[in-house]
Specification:
It is a single chain. The chain is α+β, with helices and mostly antiparallel strands. The chain has a single domain, classed as Alpha-ketoglutarate-dependent dioxygenase AlkB-like (Jelly Rolls), CATH 2.60.120.590. It is about 15% helix and about 35% strand. It is built from 3 helices and 14 strands. The protein has a 6-stranded antiparallel sheet. The longest helix is centred in the first third of the chain and has 14 residues. The chain is globular, with a radius of gyration of 16 Å. Bound molecules: 2-oxoglutaric acid and fe (ii) ion. This is Alpha-ketoglutarate-dependent dioxygenase AlkB family protein.
């Protein structure tokens, strides 16, 4: 397990969680049926569109704050509900929402952050399913700038982050100039509405 080298983090990476044919059909369906948006964020007093497209699905009470905005969930589609059921069985954890991030090509990215919003609780379990073009996920310890660990998340792979990972580490998806194909990432989460 690559994760064994990462102190104070719990990562479980399953490169072939779903077979490629299933991953292909999930990707095609999700690209077709998802009403993606490109939120704008204020950074240093200026508004920018985030460099990717986003959709938030979940149970009605699972409102979630990301990119500085509180998002009302879209209703579970049959496919997302099916994937949630599979992931709950895989991890033994309940999930009430899923964030979809579409990286249209290698120019789309996600900056350094931890998934440590209060509504996720103190030791969140986040199940991250990747479909489409492989992209590198980097980790760095909070308060440092050196990349401490990287994983290439491939088509049909599952990464489960748990324990104190979000407390001690940040992660990013850096730009990848040679990538021209899209990648869709789905992070299944459990929101505790009382903490939002
Ligand atoms: O695209 C990824 O693999 C990472 C997504 C992520 O970090 C997030 O949604 O918080
Ligand atoms: Fe994240």
């Amino acid at each position: 397990m690559p994760a064994a080298s990462l102190a104070d983090a719990e990562l479980r990476y399953l490169p072939y969680w779903v077979e490629p044919g299933v991953a292909d059909s999930w990707l095609a369906r999700l690209l077709e049926e998802t009403p993606f948006e490109q939120p704008r964020v204020r950074l240093f007093g200026r508004e920018h569109p985030v460099p990717r497209q986003v959709a938030w699905y979940g149970d009605p009470q699972a409102r979630y704050r990301y990119s500085g905005l509180l998002h009302q969930p879209l209703r579970w589609t049959s496919l997302l509900a099916e994937i949630r059921t599979l992931l709950q069985a895989e991890t033994g954890q309940p999930f009430n929402g899923v964030l979809l991030n579409l990286y249209r090509d290698g120019n789309d990215a996600m900056g350094w952050h931890s998934d440590d919003e209060p509504e996720l609780g103190t030791e969140p379990v986040i199940a991250s399913l990747s479909l489409g073009a492989p992209r590198r996920l980097d980790f760095r310890r909070k308060g440092t700038t050196r990349i401490g660990h990287s994983l290439t998340l491939g088509h049909g792979s599952l990464l489960v982050m748990s324990g104190s990972t979000q407390h001690h580490w940040q992660h990013q998806i850096a730009r990848a100039r040679r990538t021209s194909a899209p990648r869709l990432n789905l992070t299944f989460r459990l929101i505790e509405p009382s903490r939002a």
